[in-house]
Amino acid sequence: QASGTDSDSRLESQFNTVVMENEDIPTVVAAADIDIHRSRRSQAEPSETATVLANNASTPKTGGMKGPVEHGRAQPPPGAGDERPLKVLGEQLRMAESVDVCFMVDCTKSMGRWIKAVKNNIKTLYQRIQDAYNRRCHIKAAFVGYRDFDVSRHDRVRAQDFTTSPTTLYNYVDKVEAWGGEDYAEDVMGGFEKVLKLSWRQNVTKVLIHIADDPCHGRMFHDGKVSDDYPAGDPLLRSHSDMMKKVAELNIQYYFGEITTRTTKMIHIFNESLRQASRGKLSIATFKAISPDGEEFSQALFSAVRTSIFHTIDALKAPCVERPACKQIDPTLPADFHGCFLQEATAMRFEMPASIDDEVLTSASMKLLTYDAKLRIAPKPFAQGCVRLAYHALDTIKNKRVVMKQSRFTNPEYNRFKRYLEDMETQAVTARFLADFKKLLPNDIRAAERIEVLVAKVIKLHSVVRDEDEYMVMEPYLAGEYSKFSNNGFSQCAGSRVEKIMQAFSHWTYCRSNERMIVVDLQGSIHQGVTYLTDPSIHCTDGRRFGKTTNFGVQGMRMFFASHDCNDLCRHLKLKPCDYV
Length: 581
Prior knowledge:
Elements: H1 4-13, E1 27-30, H2 49-55, E2 69-70, H3 86-96, E3 98-106, H4 112-132, E4 138-146, H5 153-156, E5 157-163, H6 166-174, H7 188-195, E6 205-212, H8 240-249, E7 252-258, H9 264-277, E8 285-288, H10 295-317, E9 342-350, H11 358-362, E10 367-377, E11 383-384, E12 388-395, E13 400-407, H12 417-438, H13 443-448, E14 450-453, E15 457-461, E16 470-476, E17 481-484, H14 497-512, E18 517-520, E19 523-527, E20 530-533, E21 537-540, H15 553-563, H16 568-572
Parallel strand pairs: 3-4, 3-6, 6-7, 7-8, 14-20
Antiparallel strand pairs: 1-10, 2-8, 4-5, 9-10, 9-15, 10-12, 11-12, 12-13, 13-16, 15-16, 17-19, 18-21, 19-20
């Protein structure tokens, strides 16, 4: 397998001699010659962890087990640089292989078998982790059980703090009974409140394994589809965003065992809050809790702990380093771009596919267009998100204002050309889907609502002071009202006509692709009567495409349909209802 550096260099070499000065006469490069689906990097066995760190080798693998499926890519926490004394690095490695594991379990009357399953796996989990790390791993575990407000305060939330003794924890859980819970929604916030007060150790791998079959209180977490005595939210006014902020501060890696789809929306909302609180470094990973009696559940618990250890070790090798510009946000527009440094660059974008055929559905064989660009970029960003910084800029060749976006992190994995290609592929495929979809709309809707995909370009800045080049994304500047029609999982309530169109569009892409893709995360600006969609995401059955951080695969498709209600346009297009719930 080629290394990431070699592969990126090969990709970049395609453009060194094919630059044109005019976008209207672009040079065409066959994307078939560009492998944007590079194989996952080779990985070492867990027993080689010390050697991995010593040699700065690849990430250890999970042994090919069926472990948790990530909502988004779990990012390592911020830390110090790589040039550390060997003694310090060895101490950090020892701490990384120490683990605090907390089981947070819904203990209402429907959860008896799952409480028993946790109890029966406690001693096994201790033993398997110890065996995997040759007895080096110092593991402590805790248990938090929560019920609901129909029981006394004393019984609503109970806990056993962290202990090194599996027998102590086993005996505690053995006495826990499943009862209470008159409505479906439960006191999840009470569970989190107790979890966050446990005696978590510093600098160790921290794991939270949450197992539940029902969501927390609040209609926003379940669309009112389950009975909830407190539809306005937690009666004690505790917020999920505050809980996720504290989870991020403690750097706890959060895993959720999904028993029913009633919890799907809650976990998605929790995940967005956690990503925001951690600035994209943490996300919730889910695993299917299909049966409490099967080997799959035991395997999922073990995989969650071991994967978390790998993520912590990765953080020691390559801490996530923010750009200094993250602390230099300046929302004002430069009075004169001529005071900004003139950057020569190569601009690139994928040509929209001619049609949605099997080739587009199964590969990324598209043409890449390149041309010369000259830009004046403001020295400070005017805004930032979880992943990117945004800068005002001027395209001097076209004399137009544009927006430049760049990863907020300096780590090479966030700035490789491959990541930008994945974004461009997503936009080009979405544009083709939308062009075909609009042809099917009734004439009155097509005339009244103008919708386009804003296809961004990848900019390769030619550095005059460094050997390597730098990449950014360039988008037109749109001064208009921003709207969000759906996120990366759940559809929004369709009120306006545009929102209904976006709902039907996502549903249609799923059907048109023969259930292989769905376009989601539809948002954008309304500029001069046109709705421009920006930064869409595609969930695809091929997990290698469209970016690992946003392609949730079949899980993402299921999250969309869990909250999608077919509207008149879905019925007009005769779209098959999809019962993922």
